[in-house]
Design brief:
Rossmann fold; 310 residues; alpha/beta; binds glutamic acid
Amino acid sequence: MTVNDSSAEHLSALVQQRNHVSLSHYSGRFAPSPTGPLHFGSLITAVASYCDAKSQQGTWLVRIEDTDIPRIYPDSETHILNSIAAFGFEVDGEIIFQRQRLSIYEALIEQLKQQHLVYACQCTRKMLGSNAIYQGTCRDLNLNFKDQAIRVKVNDEHICFDDRLQGQHCSNLKYDLGDFVLKRRDGIINYQLAVVVDDFLQGITHVVRGADLLDNTERQIWLGQLLGYPRLSYMHLPLAMNANGQKLSKQNLAQALDLKQAPLLLAQAIDALHQPSVELDTPSNMLKQAVAQWNIDQIPHQTNLNGIFL
Ligand code: GLU
């Protein structure tokens, strides 16, 4: 049996497992990338995804999205895991690491290859320019998959979804983006593929995450459609901004969450989501209160939060 056969078998076993387990009516997740320590913006996402799931008697999972191995920041995985514990989040299941699941994503690419839905591409970023819409230059070249980027074909089709906060959002992937990359030439599995596959395999039903990922959603819906996965519900949260009007991010050197200040930071995150205040207590008790008071109608329906966060 070749490596590919065994990966395909492993994938098919996982799919069967997933289809046989009775799925929760609500299964949410928090899926940070360990490209830096968690910051206040990440805490807002964790709190919102947690409270939304728990207030509907759902489950809440954590997944570390670390396929982009060169961008992993030293010790950030430890900081993520320590933060989950320090802020009192209760995870309903095993925490998974995407880096340990690369053969699953490879098997999916192989499946899409058999269905002629992906192709190898030799265009470099330099040839294409950074924001260019990919014109399908390599679509019919039939290049060998080895050491090339792998792109998935998109159609001239409107994809729309109703975001629970941001309203209707649509894209025609052919004109807005073009065929997009699932695996880079250097072998790194792209976030778009890994996120869709794992949301499916983990039985996720609801995605709650930052509005910076709003524009990625149609790509993920498209991939899910190609793979025959059920549609998810989406809620994209307004982003916390720094004093320069930039979203808090690892790139903008947002401060790492100080775990010694967990109760205070938790109160601030709950406040930033315009939820009723909670009394300062242990993080676990504060989260219980926040879950009991959770009301998404209070969350601002915008992509940025007013106020300055560190
Ligand atoms: N891993 C992504 C990030 O840290 C989030 C993915 C998602 O929630 O879909 O930005």
